[in-house]
Design goal:
The chain is an all-alpha fold and 138 residues long. It has four helices and no strands. Helix 1 runs antiparallel to helix 3. It is elongated, with a radius of gyration of 25 Å.
């Protein structure tokens, strides 16, 4: 029988379930974002190590034979990319724990985290400029 008491009890139970689902969804979303930053950082780091290791070692171009600086360019570019990869990992870890604390204390604000996208664009543009300068200008 539907009574006012049963309806209120059902509403409170469904409200509790909805809060738990939202809480779980927020944690899973935070974990996916962390894994994405980790994957990006590791990929950039790996590419940097590959460029640094294999970029100038077996080069037989005339530029590398006449210019001793030409062999150091891939190493420098690789180091820059490796540092950028490490910075992505550090940012991903710090962001994960910052959002985790917000979820734990139920302090999820509606304001977006604009620092991450701005940082990633600046890092990638800086890496692109550094690699272009190292390979084509200097």
């Amino acid at each position: 029988m539907l009574t006012k008491r049963n309806i209120e009890k059902h509403k409170s139970e469904s409200s509790q379930t909805s809060d738990d689902d939202t809480h779980l969804s927020a944690h899973l979303s935070n974990e996916r974002t962390f894994l994405s930053w980790t994957r990006t950082g590791l990929n950039i780091f790996t590419v940097g190590c590959a460029i640094g290791r294999f970029g100038g070692s077996n080069s037989s171009s005339s530029a590398s034979l006449s210019d001793p600086k030409a062999e150091k360019k891939p190493l420098i570019a690789g180091i820059i990319l490796a540092i950028i990869g490490i910075l992505c990992l550090i940012y991903g870890i710090s962001r994960f724990f910052r959002v985790y604390r917000k979820i734990k204390h139920k302090n999820l604000a509606k304001s977006p985290d604009i620092f991450g996208p701005i940082l990633s664009v600046l890092i990638l543009v800086g890496a692109l400029i550094a690699v272009l300068i190292l390979f084509f200008i200097i």
